[in-house]
Write a structure and sequence with these properties.
three-stranded antiparallel sheet, 104 residues, 5 strands, alpha+beta, 2 helices, single chain
């Protein structure tokens, strides 16, 4: 669940899994999977950051409860730091070359 603000200033807590699209026109309009539309004060980038932060917290909770999932813990650590805008030098996996086509 993420907290957002309707245009009239009323706070709303939204299940982020229900968001189908977010568009700025110029206000941020969220279209939910059931077709309902919400207009919120936060811009699209802020909505996206809140969704990513919420999902990172969920993954972190799962990783803490299942300590044998080392790879998942590293992914969660990377995601959490990326969402917060912090560079992650300690937990980042080594960079790999991008996949190339058959001819490359």
């Amino acid at each position: 669940m993420i907290e957002l603000t309707r245009l009239n200033g009323t706070p709303i807590v939204l299940n982020s899994d229900l968001i189908k699209t977010a568009e700025a026109s110029p206000d941020t309009m969220l279209t939910l999977i059931n077709g309902e539309k919400l207009i919120v004060r936060e811009d699209c980038g802020e909505v996206m950051e809140r969704v990513l932060a919420y999902r990172a917290r969920l993954l972190a909770n799962v990783a803490r409860r299942m300590p044998n999932l080392g790879d998942l813990q590293r992914v969660v650590s990377i995601a959490s730091l990326d969402v917060a805008g912090q560079p992650n030098t300690a937990a980042a996996p080594p960079r790999q070359r991008p996949l190339q086509g058959r001819n490359g």
